[in-house]
Amino acid sequence: MASFSSLARSSAIMTAGTLTSRILGLVKASLLALAIGVTAVQADAFDVANKVPNTLYMLLAGGVVNAVLVPQLVRATKREDGGQDYTNRLLTLSFLLLAVVSVVATIAAPILVWLYSSGWSPEQMALATAFAYWCLPQLFFYGLYTLLGQVLNAKSSFGPYMWAPVLNNIVAIAGLAVFIVVFGTNAANPHTLDTWTPEKIALMGGSATLGVAAQALILIWPLKRIGFKYRPTFGFRGVGLGTAGKVAFWTFAAMLIGQLGFLIISRVAAGASVPGEGNASNAAYTYAYLVFMLPHSLIAVSLATALFTSLSKNAAEHDTEAVKSDFSMGVRIVGLINAFAVAALVVLASPVAMVIAGGGREQAMAVGLVIITMVFGLIPFSANYLAQRVFYAYEDARTPFFIQLPQIVFQSLAVLSASIFPKSVTVAIIGLVMSLGYLFAMILSFALLSKRLGDIDLRAIAQAHVKFLLAALAAGLAGYGMLLFFPDFALSGQWQAFVTTAGVGTVMLIVYIGVCFLLRVRELHSIIGLAAGKLKR
């Protein structure tokens, strides 16, 4: 069982890296909005092109690598050579598959852009395809980054994996800054569809891909520092890759249906993109999803990454009680943070949208509405993410597949129905549907996990979340009350929105912590005790 103190230290290192990366990511998003806009057709063209390699990677390899590699490497350490030969063969096979898929995907750029768009003009399709040729090589580097990062995680070296994206953002920010200096902002020099030269496209798409490449290659250095030496090793039969193949198959199947669901979301959202109307569409969805993922990435992903190695070791040793204890602790700590995030983002959705994407009041309110509908699903999304890691620790990817299947069917049918509503609210309805889907998946995951492991401390988890939500309600009312004193200031400009977000957010955090303290939330007391150096081990 992972100790709270060691888990907190590992999570803090990763959270610091993720926070730095996310802050730079927000800077990058703001520069991108300044450079090419948010609700303009060229913004949607670049968004789809730059999103395709990421979504394809998550479909073809991302979930597979995350589910397979750490448990397999942990079990391989029991071999005579410490798992070195097994690791080399697994990495070699993965590198080959990534290279082949990346080349094929780049060649198929026009088809992929067509799949992820809907109702676009030939000019917009041509621009998105040109961007895609530059962006699709990211697929290989995303895979390389995850493979090398999971090797580090399996060896309990968590920091580099979470800090590497910082370099990606720095490179991308530099590229956007050069673009703005050379070609101007969208407001000063509108980058309409007929203004995109090969040089402009290469700078915009190429700098994005260069950042992802830097993120992957920087991990070679920490691997050398911990003594890992990779040697290409071929011959993939009879070395124990069968179990990994079965887990990979079910994980791939789950990612496939997940991406089919995302494909429907992308096409329905793209249908809301109408020149001159400024509706929330694909780019607005991406900005809202960036905000939604921020607290999840900071806390849930960092904590799950630190827990996954411990969960895999305990599962391999059949220590069920340790697995249940780690899971319960993880869900409660993540819930403590996410409950505040929900309250803060509901109250400050529009100012946050303006801080990230700039633009006027109408744009901020359009993106803010999407943020609100998405963020209601944050708590179940993160809780289900942790539950999946327990299944994966037991080399069970089949159960998560059958959890995700009905979730995606429900979400897809509901998203398709969103197209009958006015285009101005299409993406907001998509966000609400996603939240309901996350809630359904969490309930099903917890039920199946309880059936497999026995009591997973559901009463303690539920009681803790009731306290979290009461404190979040108090914080939300305090924040909303503050906004009533200056309703126009918050959305009168980007710096005003930042001041509002920082000021109101700070007050909400103080209220939230205060109420949690009064309600005797033990997770908060543990964190305070650790910070003060008084936690009893």
From TrEMBL:
It is a multi-pass membrane protein. It comes from the Bacteria. The keyword Cytoplasm does not apply. The chain crosses the membrane at residues 55-74, 95-116, 128-148, 160-181, 201-221, 247-269, 289-312, 333-358, 364-387, 399-421, 427-448, 468-486, 498-519. It is found in: Cell membrane. The keyword Cell membrane applies. It holds the Pfam family MurJ. Keywords: Cell membrane, Cell shape, Membrane, Peptidoglycan synthesis, Transmembrane, Transmembrane helix. PANTHER family: LIPID II FLIPPASE MURJ (PTHR47019). This is Murein biosynthesis integral membrane protein MurJ. It comes from Brevibacterium ammoniilyticum.
